[in-house]
Amino acid sequence: MIVSNGYPPAAPPPDYAPPPEPVVRQYPPAAQEQKYETPLFLLAFKDGSIKAVLAYWVDGATLHYVSMDHEQRQAALASVDRDLSERFNRERNVSFRLPR
Fold it and tell me: What's the CATH code of the domain at 63?
């Protein structure tokens, strides 16, 4: 005897499957995003700020530099913390010199 209440028959319950075994995978390190062929210079200023720059040059008492946004900027040479700038660049093996 089949009794129907107007609904389709219920689906059978899904078969139970145990969770997969854990697996350890090793992936190679990611490649560096961008490598600059020219070094980045670090300029430390007496106000405590530090700027990473693409290039720099001195004209008289003015330090000119190219920012990471490729904008040419300038600062008074007297505002640069020379010793700290030289140390930061030396520690990174970047040749950096300012006139005395």
Answer: 2.30.30
Q: Tell me: the pLDDT tens digits for 5-50? A: 666 667 777 777 888 888 888 888 876 555 556 789 999 999 999 9
pTM of the model: 0.63
Domain membership of residue 58 (yes or no) is yes
Domain limits for position 72: 41-91
Q: How many residues are present in the chain?
A: 100
Among residues 46, 37, 35, 51, the alpha carbon closest in space to that of 89 is found at 51
Asked whether residue 28 is domain-assigned, the answer is: no
Task: State the DSSP string of 28-42.
Answer: PPPPPS---SSPPEE
* Terminal CA-CA length for the chain: 106
Residues in contact with 90: Cβ distance below 8 Å, sequence separation at least 6, in sequence order: 96
